[in-house]
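Tutorial, part two.
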Amino acid sequence: MDERRIRVYDDQDVLCRNGLHLRSVPVKKHGIVFDAEGPPDLDNVMSFAGTVMKLDDGRFRIYYSTRRRDPHTMRIAIAESADGLSWQRPMLGQVEWEGKDTNHIRIGGLYENANIIQPSVVRTPDDRWLMYCWLHGQDRGIIRYIISESKDGIRWKLTDLNKPAVYHPSDLEVGQAGWAAGLTAANPNSKFEDKRTVEWIEAKRLRSNDATYVYYNEAEKIFEMYSVWLMPTWPETHRYTPHDNAPQVLRTIQRRTSEDGIDWSAPELLITADEHDPLDMEFYYLAVHREPEWCTGFLGHYRCWDQTMDVELCFSRDGRHWLRPLRGGWIPRDPVPEKGCMSAYATSDVIEVGDEQIMLYTAGNTKHNHQLPPGVETEWRGVMAASWPKGRFAGLATSPSTIGSLTLRPFIPGRAEICVDADIDGWLKAELRDPYGMPLEGYELHNSIPATGDSRQHVLRWQGGKTTAPYRYDAVSMRIEINNGVLYSILI
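Running the prediction step on this input gives:
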């Protein structure tokens, strides 16, 4: 298509901007969409670091985690939905629990009753299915991100237990349990007596914390992994939080790539706390939604001192260089002591139903270190949902008493009628200019017909029924003025 959509998360398309600030879209919360229902779901369910995808028949499937503390049990399960909000658990005939069929997935070739969690499922354009999940085999000295293959997304087979995508620092292959203790049950031993060997360095190269997401980037024909890189800290540093579950590490975001989904590159460090962040800021995960020209990131915004988890919106043109203009929670947590009062963890991606997008997220009522806040008596974790108009993650907003303005750099429109996606309580006007900034006759600001109301495609018009059609494929520039509204994007 010749048209493109301008989103003003950065200034690449903007010459100047005044009286406008970036604001995240308000979301509609739908509450609990599913949580533990009897023995198959053990004690709780988590969509965090799980995968939601659209099937060939139009329905949605989620691969999620379910766990029990005593006896310590972690399983992967599926649920399916026609609308993204009402979910059913199909019985798969693979794993029984307490003598009953379940919706749990078995990985062929993996030892019996293995504890597996956080499934990241990728389906490539040639219908290749890969699943990555964390295997917690502390009794065997292993904590690693194993890879399985499938022909239908239901029946899976392990590729190679000894060739995972990445290792946890506590895995015997890395042997850094002392440093990473508290992140998960640690293995104190390493198979290496001398940690200066080439084999140990290679294992250290593949280390990662959990909270990992894998995607297939169809445009670049590569697999991408977004995960956590751990940096050491100690009591003398200003970022040390003694009551965190792992106070000796700082969580940051890394990225890896792979051509075949099996062999992964060395890590590239993407997101660390900077001078604009509070001193207790850590980043717990990064889930990514791709659209043409932009990636929207759902960043685990972890306030380590308060032990709260939020979803922070961030943005990137290439998946590597990320902008964080909105530093805080996007989906509001519930007030204490309600069930979603302490945490919100993103699923792999959004799902689209009609003109809306939906985020399934894991919510909980306990602090990250499992302490209960005042008024909470029983720990709970389940899956909630929030929705918003399709494509509206954040926009430029102005106040009722302010006229905001935006001037675009010269561009060549690829569509006949330039449109704006905007929610306008006041008015929006536009002036079409030549590439040198001079108004075109008949397209001056005073001839603009004000746009008002909420629409994903306000067509820009001027007196006499003029649109931008005569200037399609010509170089032009544009000034937009807004009073009391939000501009989400410009379709040119």
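The longest helix spans residues 198-205. In part three we will examine how such features are distributed along the chain.
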